[in-house]
Design brief:
By secondary structure, the chain is α/β, with parallel strands linked by helices. It folds into 2 domains: 152 residues, Reverse transcriptase/Diguanylate cyclase domain (Alpha-Beta Plaits, 2-Layer Sandwich), CATH 3.30.70; 251 residues, TIM Barrel, CATH 3.20.20. The protein is 43% helix and 22% strand. An 8-stranded mixed β-barrel has the order 8-9-11-12-13-14-15-16, surrounded by 4 helices. The radius of gyration is 25 Å and the shape is elongated. It starts with 12 loop residues before the first helix and ends in a 16-residue tail after the last helix.
């Protein structure tokens, strides 16, 4: 089997991925760290168009040579795409070592290289990720590094690392949680809790958001952000999302209520652009869907930033199934205002940081009012989450918000408690007559 890229003499994609799997496996067993740096030549297609393919080949060989100079004896360099390279740094102590390697590469590329009769300086963008901090499997480590590259490019940065957790935590508590999370679905360890969503004008329940919980027998309730991050790093997030879709639809199919309800399920960013997401949703609908319950998928703004066109196509296919799309935490991410008119969505959820600041921060109140007005102009429903007091509720009602969700009415609760809650009247916190649930 050929292991070298013919043009550059580096490891080809297949050979490099084999090495990556091996060394990520070593790192898992030995509890050491490796770093993966992925590099693209900016505007490579334009360079080929302007100077010819021979020049492009020369540029590729130049980048390959610079990466070899950065690599230590125990490191590996590969060409994994047309103008995409990867550098595997083994046995590093911390993220700083990987950052030094990236900085060295960029310093070397500041020197122009010979290009025909003249000289040219190449521009590169890089993304990086660490194992096991960002992923403990090779394929997901590569995906994290490539995601960092795309985010760096979108933000106008030369290179980017995703956030990391504290190393001392990672090798003790986080390591154990990774192992225990594997198989949690099969053991029945994960649960869904439901937080009601209420229509603003009469406080009639219109549905609930399904929130994943992991009540650990020894640790207690594991923070959701913690185990979701681990699931994303280890590649378990797809199976967990599929479980949540089916479980939420199964539970909701048995809810008894005087009118239609919806159940909202959170979909992580990495799944939004996957071509098989509509199939996952359609399968859940075929198994558990009923006319009385509508499915809502909640996604975050950052789900759309890497490849908006493709993400929009996926979401449009999902809406064609009769499923609604909600943009969660709106206003805190990459703010999709540039392509707002094209978003295939039905609902916006104002981030709770703005909602909770409405009474004390004029900017938060103004941003909330602007989001409500903008959403209504495009025919979108607006949900305010994190509503915790009557004064904020009254202000949101005055701003014509459509739906409210928060501890003022109910915390997220187990299925049985939510079913019981649905049977109770909901009191208006401003002192108006109680709304009948029916």
């Amino acid at each position: 089997m050929t292991i070298e890229d013919e043009l550059t003499g580096l490891h080809n994609r297949r050979s490099f991925l084999s090495l990556l799997r091996r060394h990520v496996g070593f790192a898992n067993v030995r509890q050491t760290q490796v770093a993966l740096v992925v590099v693209d030549i900016d505007g490579f297609a334009r360079l080929n168009g302007a100077h010819g393919y021979a020049f492009g080949d020369q540029a590729l060989r130049h980048v390959a040579a610079q990466l070899r100079l950065v690599a230590r004896e125990q490191d590996y360099v590969g060409r994994i795409g047309d103008n995409r390279f990867a550098l595997l740094l083994t046995r590093i102590m911390n993220q700083g070592h990987a950052e030094l390697a990236v900085q060295k590469l960029f310093r070397q590329l500041e020197v122009p290289f010979e290009a025909g009769q003249g000289k040219m300086r190449l521009a590169l963008t890089a993304g990086a990720a660490l194992s096991p901090q960002h992923a403990s499997q090779a394929e997901f480590l590569l995906r994290q590094a490539e995601k960092s590259l795309e985010l760096a490019r979108a933000a106008g940065l030369r290179w980017l690392f995703p956030p990391v957790v504290d190393d001392s935590q990672r090798f003790s508590e986080f390591w154990d949680l990774e192992i225990e999370l594997d198989g949690a679905i099969q053991r029945g360890d994960l649960l869904l809790a439901y937080q009601p969503k209420l229509r603003m004008d009469d406080l009639r329940p219109i549905g609930a958001e399904a929130l994943m919980r992991w009540p650990h027998p020894a640790r207690g309730l594991v923070p959701t952000e913690q185990f979701i991050r681990i699931a994303e790093q280890t590649g378990q997030i797809r199976a967990m999302t599929m479980w949540a879709l089916n479980t939420a639809m199964r539970h909701a199919s048995n809810w008894k209520h005087g009118g239609p309800l919806s159940v909202a399920v959170n979909v992580p960013a990495e799944l939004v652009a996957r071509d098989d997401l509509p199939d996952m949703v359609e399968n859940a609908l075929q198994l558990w869907g009923t006319p009385e319950v509508a499915l809502v998928l909640e996604i975050t703004e950052r789900s759309l930033v890497t490849d908006p066109r493709h993400s929009f196509e996926i979401l449009s296919r999902i809406r064609d199934l009769g499923v609604k799309v909600s943009i969660d935490d709106f206003g805190t991410g990459y703010s999709c205002l540039a392509y707002f008119k094209d978003i295939p969505a039905d609902e916006l959820k104002i981030d709770q940081s703005f909602v909770r600041g409405m009474l004390t921060d004029t900017a938060s109140a103004d941003i909330t009012a602007l989001i409500i007005d903008l959403a209504h102009r495009f025919g979108l429903t607006v949900v305010a989450e994190g509503v915790e007091d009557a004064q904020t509720f009254a202000l949101l009602r005055a701003r014509n918000c459509d739906v409210v969700q928060g501890h003022l009415f109910a915390k997220a609760m187990p299925l049985d408690a939510f079913v019981q809650w649905l049977r109770q009247p909901v009191a208006d916190p401003t002192g108006a007559a109680a709304a009948s649930v029916g």
